[in-house]
Amino acid sequence: MLATAFTLLGTAVSWLELVAFVLALANIACNVFEIHWGWPLTIVASALYAWLFYASKLYGEAGVNLFFAVTALWGWWQWLHGHRAGSGAPLRIERLDRRGLQWCLLGYALLWLLCALLLRSVTDSEVPWADGFVTAGSVVGTVLLARKFIDNWPLWLLVNAASVALFAYKGLQLTVLLYVIFFLLAIWGWLGWKIRMASATGPTP
Fold this sequence. Notes:
The protein contains seven helices and two strands, in the order ββααααααα.
């Protein structure tokens, strides 16, 4: 799987990166359209990316992709059977309230600090702070996506933009292209979820 499939912009692209790329695109497309089959695709694509990133010494990204693979089971269950706390209503697209947003920002900051310090102390990562930033944002974004909070999409825009710079630095050219596409899909997903949320709840200010 680590053998070269083709060369892109002077950089070798492995079969591993190619297969992970295709599955990840299918996964995000399912998320945009609220199709629950995106979660099992997440399991496979994330496991492959964990392997790729470990081989590239992006240990934070490798770790978060293992997290994705495990939590995708929880996300799949949430989309099929999950309910909102308090109301007991089935999950539908909603926006975080002010308190929820504050907790997410605090959690992101603390998780970034923890990831970066961990990467600096126990790995030979060349980019612990950048890797930690993307890792922490990916964890928070996955939780928000699983609970169908529309706030996951602007967070993914931030994470994907940072990921493009990080992977370009590491020479993962096909993955750079993937995350540029992810960035555009996050815009699409955000707009699509806004329309669905408005149609379900009526116009919002």
